[in-house]
Amino acid sequence: MTIGTSGGWRFWYQSNKGTLLAAALFVAMFVIYVSNHPAGFTPNVVQTASNKAILLAFVAMAQCLVVITAGIDLSAGMVLVLCNCLASWLVVGTPLQTGFGIVAVLVAGLACGTLNGLIIIFGRLQPIVTTIATSAIFFGLALLLRPTPGGSVNEALADVFTSTLFGMFPTSLAVLAATILLVWIPFSRSVYGRAAYAAGSAENAAYMSGMPLKRAKLAAYAVAGLLSAMGGLYLTFYSYTGEAAFASGNAYTLYSIAAVVLGGVSLAGGKGSAVGAVFGALAFRTIGDLLFVFDFDPLWQPLFQGIVLMLAIGVGSIGLARVRNRLEWFQ
């Protein structure tokens, strides 16, 4: 019994090592951040940090779903930008109109992700090529909606989703936790979720086993679009406006890839967790907060971010150097 328990804990640790490292890194950096913040550890400081970090967290979750299948989504940031612009048109007016607008934005994100999946699966194009092309399409649509920054949002609703619960816990973190519970966990434990992992680790073997690989990949890309749309909604709630910002879309895409790697998700596919990607996003976002607190020169900030990211990824990848064959990496 002792041996079995020990083996179970060892397996659990190996399976969640990336997530634990990302969580530990985030906690350590956030403690340093609030310890040196002029206001200290207060609900307002936590609320502000949470509202900024949740944007990247949603896109990182979206990226994670695709990367698990051994794919990549270079359009995730542009889906966020497109849904931000769409929300600035639709999430206004009466409660009924606002509700319709939210549903329309989420459906738009779902449609963007589904389009990516359909082209990749049935068009048999490489994910990197497909999502570069669709990212340009999504940005073009965003630009049509918002040639210049503008629009608005239901401010009462925005205030609810960016405030705190009981004056203590950020609502945005509660929404993020609910998304993990209602979207990620059911997906990861479903037949499609297991097939998505199998597609990333050993696609040929999974195909020979009769797993629904095409439907799993399509589901992964579709849900990824939905999660990016949630990030676009939150960007609208946070900024009260819409903007077709090309640089912002590209930044969220690149940072989401960094976040999933930082969270222990293998870019080779088949290994990792959206929870790890979320902690990776929180850790990556906290790096920027640390630079603000310590008043780093803006010219040095990208260099510092890169060094911290490389060190963190290097520590998390030490085990990869000991792997003798690909099968061991997924045990």
Automatic annotation (TrEMBL):
* Entries under Pfam families matching the protein: BPD_transp_2
GO function term, MF aspect, one: transmembrane transporter activity
Matching PANTHER family: ABC TRANSPORTER PERMEASE PROTEIN YPHD-RELATED-RELATED (PTHR32196)
Q: Which UniProt keywords apply?
A: Cell membrane, Membrane, Transmembrane, Transmembrane helix
Q: How does it sit in the membrane?
A: Multi-pass membrane protein
Protein name as catalogued: Monosaccharide ABC transporter membrane protein, CUT2 family
Recorded GO CC terms: plasma membrane
What would be the name of the gene that encodes this protein? Answer: rbsC_9
Q: Where are the transmembrane segments?
A: 20-41, 53-72, 102-121, 128-145, 165-185, 218-240, 252-268, 275-294, 300-321
What is the annotated localization of this protein?
Cell membrane
